[in-house]
Amino acid sequence: MPKMKTKSGAKKRFTISPSGRIKRSHAFKRHILTKKDTKTKRQLRGVTEVHASDKAMVRSMLPYA
How many Å from the N-terminal Cα to the C-terminal Cα in the chain? Predict the structure, then answer.
């Protein structure tokens, strides 16, 4: 079997913690921030865990993580 390829977009977007949890950052925080409320921008900081229903898909995109 040849080596499996990692999806380039997935390796830029997800990180896997030592315990096996998949972390992601929030969307809607890149541009057009002037019209967004300060509270909204503050809540979009930091990272969250990928939802349980999406974990299998992310794992398949990152075969060696």
Answer: 19
